[in-house]
Amino acid sequence: MAAVHDAHPGPDVAAEQETSADRSLAAFLGRAAARAAEQTAGGAALLLVGGPSQARPRLRAAAGLDSPEQAREISGALSSLIRDVMSTATRQVREGDPASLGQQSGGVLGLPLQADDGPCHGVLLVLCPREPSLAMAENAAQLAGSVALRIDHDALRERVNELEGALVQKEPAIGQDGDEILKLSEALFAQDIELLQSQEKLGSVQRLKNDFIEKMSRELRTPLNSIIESVISVLAGENENLSEAGKANLRNALDEGTAFLRTLQNILDLWRLKQSELPIAQQTVNFREVVEEAIFSVQDTLGSKPVVIEKKIVEPLPKLRTDLPKVNQILFLLLDNAAKFIEQGRIEIGAEVRDDRLYCTIQDTGIGICADDQEFIFEEFFQVDDTSSSAYRGAGLGLTLVRELLDLMGGEIELSSEVGRGTRVGFSVPVTLA
């Protein structure tokens, strides 16, 4: 859920026409909540706004949750923490297991919406899947200060507009009102500068993150590609002169290098998706060829495992128009995940076109996923447990990337699994016939 606006409106709010300033503030709060949730890497954030005179601040925006109802439920469950933050205007941390709130164990961070020594305008709640780091807490505090500064700024501008309107109607009182307008205008100008500086600082942090991701990817991929090409060249040109042990070591290095390169690409793709830098491009797609290519690509993951891959394609399966690279990537990631967690048995790929959508399923007879873990399986860097992390190669980004790509394309995904019996993942994307 990207944002929730005016979750607790008063009796007259619905009748009032929302001004452009209200819409601008609502959009700002939505972006702030989304940024706070993003910093937690899998958590959520809620913004509650209201002055000290209000019995309870109003839920204005939330991110990282499934629905507005869930946001309201969580804000109600954390009412005591909200009161503590509002009354003391200090940072509060509630430790323990907020699993009942739909989050992993990690705690809840409560921050006052306060700029410098100004009034407390509400609370920023950050639900953390893991214990919040000091850097994450400081970033969230800076974000809460920026929100408070924006609210101060809007309130001050509204007061200036009121006085200017009153000044037009009351010419005799121009001296007293003029002095107050001048003082408030000076304060408004100072806050304009402070707000611009705050937004510039946040933008600078975002640019640094973007530059780091791009540079890290480029600096690592360039030498890695060179290493992979060198290994392939040695295997192809010196194959007869190599011992069996040497061939095995080089093939192992090639497998590890290829897997590392794929992980780097997943990180970069996921980052570009979050920055809305992966546009959708339509091409004519022969899905049978996509399936064959994905099967060929996962042979390295399967290795010598006694696993049979079966295709069940419902006819007719015409040529389609959709985003070929993204569909190819989704199918490969799901098939690679199935190949990784199966030791023997069968992987079945099903496909059909129905009602202007492509439906595809990948079903395996692998180790399966327990019910408690299925809730978090699409979260970033999530691993089922420590033993699985060491036994099965991967960074825990594949399924997250699948979900993000499908969201971008207007697709859907579902997962069902049983420990010891296997997993079934189905997805669908909108398509048009070529």
Could you explain the architecture of this structure?
- The chain is an alpha+beta fold.
- The chain folds into 3 domains: 20-169, GAF domain (Beta-Lactamase, 2-Layer Sandwich); 211-274; 283-433, Histidine kinase-like ATPase, C-terminal domain (Heat Shock Protein 90), CATH 3.30.565.10.
- It has helices spanning 20-39, 68-77, 79-88, 134-169, 174-237, 244-274, 287-297, 299-302, 324-340, 371-374, 386-391, 398-409; strands at 44-49, 58-63, 92-94, 108-112, 122-127, 283-285, 307-313, 320-322, 345-354, 357-364, 412-418, 422-430, 432-433.
- The strands form 3 sheets. Strands 2-1-5-4-3 form a 5-stranded antiparallel β-sheet, with helices on both faces.
Furnish the topology, listing elements before pairings.
Layout (H helix, E strand, L loop, with lengths): L19 H20 L4 E6 L8 E6 L4 H10 L1 H10 L3 E3 L13 E5 L9 E6 L6 H36 L4 H64 L6 H31 L8 E3 L1 H11 L1 H4 L4 E7 L6 E3 L1 H17 L4 E10 L2 E8 L6 H4 L11 H6 L6 H12 L2 E7 L3 E9 L1 E2 L1
Parallel strand pairs: 7-9
Antiparallel strand pairs: 1-2, 1-5, 3-4, 4-5, 6-8, 8-13, 9-10, 10-12, 11-12
Q: Helix/strand-derived class?
A: alpha+beta
Q: Main sheet? A: 5 strands, antiparallel
Q: How much helix, percentage-wise, in residues? A: 40-55%
In CATH terms, what is the fold-level topology of the largest domain? Heat Shock Protein 90
Low-pLDDT residue spans: 1-18, 97-104, 386-390
Mean pLDDT: 78
The coarse silhouette is elongated
What is the name of the CATH class of the largest domain?
Alpha Beta
Query: In the residues, how many domains can be counted?
Result: 3
Order of strands, widest sheet: 2-1-5-4-3
* Terminus-to-terminus distance: 34 Å
